[in-house]
Design a protein that fits this description.
Elements lengths: L10 H6 L21 H4 L13 H4 L11 E20 L2 E11 L2 E8 L2 E24 L2 E24 L4 E23 L5 E26 L2 E8 L2 E15 L11 E3 L8 E5 L8 E11 L2 E10 L2 E2 L4 E2 L2 E11 L4 E10 L16 E2 L1 E11 L3 E16 L9 E17 L1
Parallel strand pairs: 9-10
Antiparallel strand pairs: 1-2, 1-3, 1-21, 2-4, 3-4, 4-5, 5-6, 6-7, 7-8, 7-9, 8-12, 9-11, 12-13, 13-16, 14-15, 16-17, 17-19, 18-20, 19-20, 20-21
């Protein structure tokens, strides 16, 4: 692969045109952190069960089938992600790593009158991403350094209510308040073969809020079969972002110096500052689940999750389908093992060889495994989920070259569930 189409590309072009998108890397997928302990062990296949507190997130109609009121909390979930772009500069790889300790779910449900009420808190995305890379002898520059720190967290919190419409059909609704906060700091330094230099700094922060209602139905036509259906439509009510771009260079020629650069000599220029209140258009999500109990000790669950295509002033998202299959087996009355496989497909279009500044396209596949021990008053779970995949990306802005990219993530969780 040829990274640069022309050898006359200067260090200035390289330093100021590294691709930056208002979308974080995890925004290209919908299934980044699996919520809850039982669902986490089964790869997120939980729409047709949802009979504990985490059902408030997956399908609030399921809490009607909960035998007792329960308080459930995923106490610790350690989430790591690594993304490697192949051969970005001079044949060198470009790697960004993220790790975060996520309190990914807390929920409580209780019977009240003819129905059930609940309250839950879920962290659906949490990224603390860092990159420290140094490249040498790239085209006509002997040294290029880039440092990135990116923090991005999405939180949902709100009440739920569920009611049995008949002996076999339940209805439930959860009204989440949506909050997302992001901060990105990116520093780049380039030293050219003539000993001139350029330093650039990008600072980006954004905040958005809105609502994320979840409407669910759960139908159990027989003792060993159930069907679940949920519809959710996030709506962003307010959004604000600020981007500040600063550049300092010892080149004073207007033909070679980027417009935003402050020259060492001459009249300094103010840093570029851009503000925006553009709101994301979030997709409607329809989720269908089917659960089958061959015996009292064994459960098989299948989830299909569809997201519609959306277009806004920030990015385009294609229609996306994810699949999850989960298994649960009671080894004894005290010990349960759960496992699952699932997809986390990209919502971005496949990259075109004639376009520039395209978002990453990486389809991911994952698996999960967990163990739970029951006691008379509570249960204790521990397990992990793991995903990996590869695809294509464009790291350099304004250039049609495409890089191969690999991504992997792991989540380790410990959870407790208590009876009230």
């Amino acid at each position: 692969m040829i990274l640069f189409k022309k050898q006359e590309y200067s260090g200035v072009v390289i330093a100021t045109c590294i691709f930056f998108s208002a979308a974080s890397a995890d925004e290209f997928h919908y299934n980044n952190v699996i919520i809850g302990d039982r669902a986490g062990g089964m790869g997120g296949a939980y729409t047709a069960i949802s009979d504990d507190a985490s059902g408030l997130f997956y399908n609030p109609a399921g809490i009607v089938f909960g035998e007792e009121s329960k308080l459930s909390a995923s106490v610790n979930a350690f989430h790591t992600t690594s993304t490697t772009y192949k051969g970005v500069l001079g044949g060198g790889d470009w790697t960004r790593d993220s790790s975060a300790l996520v309190p990914n779910f807390f929920g409580v449900s209780q019977k009240m009158g003819d129905g059930y009420v609940g309250f839950s808190y879920a962290v659906t995305d949490s990224v603390i991403e860092n990159q420290d890379s140094r490249f040498t002898t790239v085209v006509n520059i002997p040294e290029f350094i880039v440092n990135v720190n990116n923090q991005d967290t999405t939180t949902l919190i709100g009440p739920s209510y569920a009611l049995a419409l008949s002996d076999t059909l339940n209805f439930g609704i959860t009204l989440y308040f949506h909050k997302r906060e992001r901060e990105l700091i990116q520093n780049q330094w380039v030293k050219r073969s003539d000993n001139s230099f350029e330093w650039s700094n990008l600072y980006y922060e954004s905040s958005e809020s809105g609502v994320n209602p979840v409407i669910g139905f759960l139908w159990s036509p027989s003792d060993n079969t159930s069907f679940g259906l949920t519809i959710r439509k996030p709506v962003i009510s307010s959004s604000s972002s600020t981007t500040q771009n600063t550049c300092i260079s010892d080149i004073n020629s207007p033909t070679t110096q980027p417009a935003q650069c402050i020259p060492i000599l001459g009249v300094p220029k103010d840093p570029q500052l851009v503000t925006s209140e553009v709101k994301r258009k979030m997709p409607t999500n329809i989720r269908l689940g089917i659960a089958y109990f061959p015996t009292n000790l064994f459960l098989v669950d299948l989830d299909l999750s569809y997201y519609e295509a959306t277009t806004d002033d920030i990015t385009d998202r294609k229609a996306t389908l994810n699949i999850a299959v989960g298994l649960e087996y009671y080894m004894t009355q005290e010990w349960v093992v759960r496992g699952g496989v699932f997809t986390n497909n990209s919502n971005t279009p496949e990259l075109s060889s004639v376009d520039t500044d395209q978002n990453d396209h990486i389809d991911l596949n994952g698996f999960s495994l967990s163990f739970t021990r029951f006691t008379k008053e509570n249960s204790f779970s521990f397990g992990f989920t793991s995903t990996s995949g590869d695809g294509e990306a464009q790291v350099i802005s304004g250039v049609t070259d495409i890089q191969q990219v690999e991504q992997s993530s792991n989540t380790f969780f410990i959870s407790n569930s208590y009876k009230l």
